[in-house]
Recover the amino acids of this structure.
């Protein structure tokens, strides 16, 4: 009888123990549902916040189309100096690396034999001149005798023939003397134009020949030219610019050595079909000798100008699957994706067609944007801080 009440009292306790886990599970579910709802609300609220971006204004200005290319410096003229006769070098009158003028004496050859032949030819001319004078005087006397009927016509013709023969002989000897003079001139080698001498390969006593190695090479260094290539699509612009006047060309020297300004002087008559380029040349004064034949230089030429061009920072232009575009910020601070045509990229700027000057385009933060996104102007990355923003910096808390 005593065990029945005990069993009855345990039954409500078991029910209570079963209800506790159920209540805890419900409380957890309710807490999770409220938390998820709160996160959704926060996410929705966050999505409504404007996206920070950096914008720039589309400018309108005239932009020169600057073409850049790698060029090589070439001499306008360079010549290998060789002897025209086989002889021996008697004296060298120049030094290696010397600047010479046109007509300066470079080498003297042993020309004693040619000098003797020239003197002999001159002496022969003097003899011919004397014989001719005697024959002419004799002819004058014979003419007087013929007029007085003392000699016949045949006798006068013999004297006339003697005069004509001596005149011909004198002409032959004069030509021979001229040939000797020319041969004597080969004994002196002179500079054909002003320039700079290279390595001298002969010395006094060296044997030189017409088909031998050059005695020295003379290269013109001022003025000097630079040869480079440009795309064939710019040919029309270059020719048009040359027709209007001189086209300025800049040569940028390596190692920060500065720049030189020259002018375009030559356009090749054919386009290289393999590379699609055309070769041009620019000329520079080079009085200071800053350009040297064989040097590599960076060339810049601006043959044409895009008038009233829409200019934006180059990072504002984005590349899509089919075209290029920019994000334009409207008055309601919402962006619109506008398709543009890229006309030119020159360093930090890009010239585009399809956006009006004065509009504002996004330059930073475009990765989070799409048409209709709300944006807010943010500080550009790397921009200097305002003075009030730097107050207190440098003080570390204790």
């Amino acid at each position: 009888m005593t065990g029945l009440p005990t069993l009855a009292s345990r039954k409500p306790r078991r029910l209570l123990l079963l209800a506790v886990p159920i209540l805890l599970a419900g409380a957890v579910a309710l807490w999770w549902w409220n938390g998820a709802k709160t996160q959704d609300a926060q996410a929705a609220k966050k999505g409504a916040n404007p996206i920070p971006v950096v914008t720039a204004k589309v400018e309108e200005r005239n932009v020169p189309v600057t073409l850049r290319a790698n060029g090589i410096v070439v001499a306008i003229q360079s010549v290998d100096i060789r002897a025209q006769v086989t002889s021996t070098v008697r004296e060298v009158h120049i030094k290696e690396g010397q600047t010479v003028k046109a007509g300066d004496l470079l080498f003297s050859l042993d020309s004693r034999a040619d000098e003797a032949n020239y003197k002999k030819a001159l002496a022969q001319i003097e003899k011919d001149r004397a014989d001719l004078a005697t024959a002419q005087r004799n002819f004058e006397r014979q003419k007087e005798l013929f007029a007085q009927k003392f000699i016949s016509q045949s006798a006068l013709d013999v004297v006339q023939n003697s005069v004509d023969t001596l005149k011909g002989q004198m002409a032959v000897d004069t030509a021979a003397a001229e040939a000797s003079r020319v041969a004597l001139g080969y004994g002196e080698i002179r500079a054909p134009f002003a320039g700079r001498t290279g390595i001298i390969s002969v010395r006094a006593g060296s044997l030189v020949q017409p088909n031998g190695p050059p005695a020295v090479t003379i290269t013109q260094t001022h003025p000097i030219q630079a040869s480079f290539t440009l795309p064939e699509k710019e040919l029309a612009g270059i020719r048009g610019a040359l027709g209007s006047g001189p086209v300025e060309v800049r040569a940028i020297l390596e190692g920060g050595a500065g720049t030189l300004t020259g002018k375009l002087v030559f356009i090749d008559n054919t386009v290289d079909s393999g590379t699609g380029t055309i070769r041009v040349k620019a000329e520079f004064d080079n009085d200071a000798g800053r350009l040297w034949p064989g040097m590599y230089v960076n060339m810049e030429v601006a043959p044409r100008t895009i008038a009233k061009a829409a200019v934006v920072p180059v990072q504002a232009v984005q590349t899509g699957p089919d075209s290029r575009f920019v994000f334009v910020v409207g008055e309601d601070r919402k962006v619109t994706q506008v398709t543009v045509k890229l006309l030119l990229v020159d360093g930090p700027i890009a010239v585009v067609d399809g956006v009006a000057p004065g509009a504002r385009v996004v330059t930073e933060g475009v990765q989070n944007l799409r048409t209709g996104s709300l944006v807010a102007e943010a500080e550009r990355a790397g921009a200097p801080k305002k003075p009030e923003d730097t107050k207190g910096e440098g003080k570390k808390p204790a």
